[in-house]
Specification:
disordered N terminus; single chain; 10 helices; 8-stranded parallel sheet; 14% strand
Length: 288
């Protein structure tokens, strides 16, 4: 396990960033209120090998919901990532600033609110959450949120009011019957226009069969590629049997056919958002 410092930082040119993936072990303690569980062990070494095989230089590990606030596996992976990885952690709203600082030293860059498939939601206007969001803002972190689009409209504006940057998972999961007319997706577009909200173009297979192209077009129109990032969602939890990494790469190529726009989404935007720096020549114009 790590000692609180990410020592093995190797400068590396940013070629492309996968902004959402998970590491997991089947025998790690699971949270009682989980809605999924790992089918197999997925190590950081395997993930780095997947990145290498697909020409991706860097990645962002996202804490899965089934471990609750135990971030030890993710932080250990960051320690072993040789500077190629950043991460988002799941924390209790009363976590102290010293604990966040310690995780920042190991490569954490945000907190994750994984509130998908919940019958009731925490009160983001409570003093505890407002203090947490203020700490996130002051650290230069972001709040990552995974929530159904129909519920996002009641949450996202309150987080933005606290001044914290927001990263929305998987398009904002719009109601597939409403599509771009979904109220939560409208709130996402408002944040994108304001420049304080970023969106992951990811997990098309989690969108209820909806065509994601209208989502991409609306997001590009609202804020352009500098508010968008791409992600694989590896290892495709609950969809392992029919989704491949190549499918996810090809999704982006289909959604964003312009190479320069795609380069900004793959390289420039995530490099700035997640703190990947590798010197003045870190931006590769030949990104996938």
């Amino acid at each position: 396990m790590g000692d609180g410092t990410n020592r093995r930082l190797t400068p590396r040119r940013v070629v492309a960033v996968d902004c959402h993936a998970h590491v997991m072990l089947r025998d790690a303690p699971l949270a009682p209120d989980r809605h999924s569980a790992p089918k197999r062990d997925c190590t950081v070494e395997e993930y780095l090998a997947v990145l290498d095989a697909n020409g991706i230089s860097h990645g962002v590990l996202t804490a899965p919901s089934f471990y609750g606030t135990d971030n030890s596996l993710l932080l250990d992976a960051l320690d072993r990532g040789a500077g190629r990885l950043r991460g988002t952690v799941i924390v209790a709203p009363d976590v102290d600033r010293a604990a966040l600082d310690a995780m920042a030293r190991r490569g954490a860059v945000g907190i994750r609110l994984n509130w998908f498939k919940r019958e009731s939601l925490p009160d983001v206007t409570s003093p505890e959450y407002r203090r947490l969001f203020a700490d996130v803002r002051d650290l230069g972190w972001h709040v990552e949120i995974y929530l159904e689009g129909r519920s996002l409209a009641g949450v996202l504006p309150h987080i933005r009011e606290c001044g914290a940057s927001v990263v929305v998972d998987h398009f904002g999961s719009p109601d597939p019957e409403r599509g771009v007319a979904c109220a939560g997706f409208h709130c996402v577009l408002e944040g994108v226009r304001a420049g304080d909200t970023w969106v992951k173009l990811s997990a098309s297979y989690r969108q209820g069969g909806a065509n994601c192209q209208p989502y991409v077009d609306a997001l590009l129109d609202a804020g352009g590629p500098r508010q968008l990032v791409w992600a694989s969602d590896w290892p495709f939890v609950s969809h392992e049997d029919h989704v491949t990494y190549e499918d996810c790469v090809n999704d982006l190529k289909a959604w964003v056919p312009d190479a320069e726009t795609r380069r900004i989404i793959l390289v420039e935007t995530p490099a700035r958002l997640f703190g990947f720096t590798a010197g003045p020549n870190s931006l590769d114009r030949d990104a996938t």
